[in-house]
Write a structure and sequence with these properties.
- By secondary structure, the chain is an all-alpha fold.
- It is 66% helix and 0% strand.
- The protein has 13 helices and no strands.
- The chain starts with a helix and ends in a 6-residue tail after the last helix.
């Protein structure tokens, strides 16, 4: 897949009216071509198939796309990594970390947890990295650590989840407290008793937002 060809496809499908709306929604932090998720993915879906068959991640392509000023190209990087997650190895973690630490906002952070979470199930060394990230000065990095086990269900490492959340208690940062709530809410679908006990034990240190989000399915 060629970066310039990819950009040309986006340029051909650009929707200036929708782009302006998307830019406002994202607080004018990023430029947009104006393609919603379905249209965006359709643009390069066929191009990802040979990439998957090839079995090699084109990091030069991903770096070029990440450096593009248009947000859809960062979404492409995330979709690419998800599509080729089976090719990821522990040595690729610094490359993914670069994406986590740059052009940060909730949209890409909540996307990048998917390939990271998959890699973590394949290589236990990722757990140590996530535990370190959970105390990082950058709250987006901490959010990544908190959320990286989402959707694991029975494969969730509750000891790791406990340590990561405990490292982020007594926080005033909205995006951290929201992430804690989401992590607890997601796991409550698998083990509601564990989540109920965790909330009860840490009630004094959890924000009301985290408790509200984490208890959403418990209350039902």
């Amino acid at each position: 897949m060629d970066y310039q060809t990819l950009v040309h496809k986006f340029q051909q499908q650009a929707n200036p009216v929708q782009a302006a709306q998307m830019e406002r929604y994202m607080r004018n932090q990023f430029k947009f071509y104006g393609l919603q998720s379905k249209a965006r993915k359709a643009l390069y879906h066929q191009d990802l198939l040979p990439e998957k068959r090839n079995g090699q991640i084109d990091w030069d392509l991903l770096e070029a796309a990440w450096n593009d000023p248009h947000r859809e190209l960062q979404y492409f990087v995330c979709d690419y990594l998800i599509a080729l997650k089976r090719q990821l190895v522990f040595a690729d973690l610094p490359r993914i970390e670069h994406f986590v630490r740059s052009k940060q906002w909730w949209d890409t952070i909540d996307y990048l947890i998917k390939p990271l979470g998959y890699l973590g199930l394949q290589d236990q060394r990722v757990e140590t990295v996530m535990l370190n990230w959970s105390t990082d000065p950058d709250f987006w990095v901490r959010r990544t650590a908190i959320e990286h086990q989402l959707l694991r269900k029975q494969q969730t490492d509750t000891e790791l989840l406990t340590q990561i959340i405990e490292n982020n208690l007594d926080q005033s940062e909205f995006f951290i407290n929201k992430a804690i709530g989401w992590a607890l809410r997601d796991y409550s679908k698998t083990d509601p008793q564990w989540v109920q006990a965790f909330i009860q034990e840490h009630k004094a240190q959890l924000s009301q937002l985290s408790i509200k989000e984490g208890s959403k399915y418990l209350n039902k």
